[in-house]
Amino acid sequence: MSFSISDPAVDSSSDVLSRASRAWYRPIDLPVENESLHLCARHRLMDLKRSNFAARPQEQALPPDWHFGKLSEVIQRGDYCNFCKMITDSVSTTAHKHEVEVLGCWIPDVTYTTKGAETDVKTTMVTLLLRILPEMAIWKDVFAPFTIVPLAMENEDNMFLGRTLNPKSINIDLLRSWIESCEDWHRCVCWRKNNSRRDGPVTIKFPIIPFIRLLDLKDDCLIQTSIPPVFVALSYVWGNAQIFKLVKETLPNLLQPGSLAKSYELFPKSIQDAVTLTRLLNHRYVWIDSLCIIQDDDSDKGAQVQLMDTIFTRASLTITAASGRDANAGLPGIDKGSRNIIQHTAVYSDELSLLSLMRGCDDVVDTSTWNGRCWTYQERLLSRRSMIFTNDTVYFECGEDIWSEDFNMLRSDVYMSASLQTITPSRGEEPPTLIHGHQNRLGIFKGDYLRMVAEYTLRDMTFPADRISGFEGILNVFRKPYGPVFVWGMWSEEMLAHSLLWQPEQLLDRVPIDEKSKQPMYPSWSWAGWSGAVKYSDPEDWNGLPPLKDPWTRALPSEYGESVVINRDDANLGSAQVPMYHLQLRSRVANFKLTLDDKSGTLKPLFVSKVHGEHPIQFGITTAHPPNFGTNKEWLGTILLPAFYQQKLSEEHEFVVLSSAYCFVADELSLDASRALEPYAAVNVMLITRQGTAAHDGKPVVVRAGVGRMLKKAWDMTQVCWEDMIVA
Description:
Mean pLDDT: 88
Radius of gyration: 30 Å
Structural class: alpha+beta
Shape: globular
Largest sheet: 9 strands, mixed
Helix content: 10-25%
């Protein structure tokens, strides 16, 4: 019995199939189906052995991928095939409703080096895993890919093998071994001065000014110290749970030994479990925001928020409560019976049992309520080590590795694994594509700032006024190498031209000082002045033009002579509420119109936003006064604006020039059209609306409505004037 698929997108010519093929669509001869056996014909034909997964030289070719048929067929064969039953149990029941082709693709996993027994020659070795996934990537939302590995037998060394877990509770010895292994092996990346449980108090050279508070679990009270001992921190979501908080009235009592036990029953479950886990991990001190920051003292809150980077980088470990929706979710597995893990396995042969691993750390955590909160973003990035509790399992994440309960790769010479890479299976002859690194990583380069602003603003914040406070720890990290260059969250000085170019990903609202006055808290030119998700264009998107050696020269001061600076001004500006720091422009001003007829000729799909709600529209920019009545409007540029601007197409809008632009990006102009332009044939512009005049000098006060790009020639052929103005 043979099997093949005809697909016009697949090269099935004889010269391809004549060579040894690893593609899933290659012709195969299936044995006769026999339901009395514990494997179906396809899985018997695979003839899996442990050696298929075992370490091999990195350059060795991957085994062939497999086609398991439609999911409905896999489900049907699951009545008698152990392997098909494991697949059926591992996919969501939602996927059962769809006719999805199921593939098994081999993926490189753990990479390490080994020395020969008789020589010092090192060989790079890699183990393999089998990724079960839908044939078409568009099905991944209903059919989440998952991983299959060999399951360790009882009393077997389980290195690079799956592990059987206690379904009801955690293995505290395993969790301790993660911390100890990281401390022993990852000194360069995961250590900070005295952040090991084995160290004593920090030296007087590195005090925390003014101080932090910690829960002392031995003396059972709060302590205040500028020279903290080794401690762990808790990251969790408050949600709608009742939180026992430190307030000015209770501070004196909680500083007394024995005071915490009296209030312990009032703590939400996540805090109770964090206290228990801290003790189990042999730590004495833990930092928890609701108990270590005075919640009704704005001065104390302000001082402690400024220390977020210090607290989370100095913590020996961050305990992360990523399960549930509020502070009562707890840490599943701390109490016996507080979780109920189900592992899916299959007996393949006498020598091989298979385990379907739980989803990867990022796949699980990225969909959690905890990961969707603004405050937890910096806590995740700043933490050197995190022990992350989800509904089903625990992960350990540090600067070098990600470890999970159900798979053992706790070995010092491992330097790469599938868990640290973005993997794109080829679904064909070619091997999969593996890219090292993923999101949710702290960086200190200019491009990292743009990325992290986008990642941060994508999250939810209960109180919009905390827009900058929740990002302050990350800004402090950047201040160390770059100095005090941030104003209202924006990178000023040489990066101001770039930081002004943020774009909305959804309909944005101004962040008010309070709900009653509705007065803006932050200026309109800063992303912090708006509630909602924003993004920056990829600084490496050259759209057909030669790449610049320095990507930050893609936005330069305009040859027209505009001046764009941030000034400090404490003057009362009358009815226009301008912050202490404001953006002052001396720029060309001209009127243009918007058009829905986007003549950019963009052939590439626009970026698909991850946010919900109303998305902005990409408008074309055209001349306000066509030279000949009835002629087609000339496309002069593009700008992202809220959808309500569709009602303003007949109106003229004021634009100002911000800087010279090297090129349009791919979402704005087609590749062919972009290549036809000279470098720096465009300018970055801001659409403004006027709010009044400043009382002290009469300068016009305007607000940002949007930022886009225009052809420079538009400003050469249009009547313009020069004006000094303040952007509020």
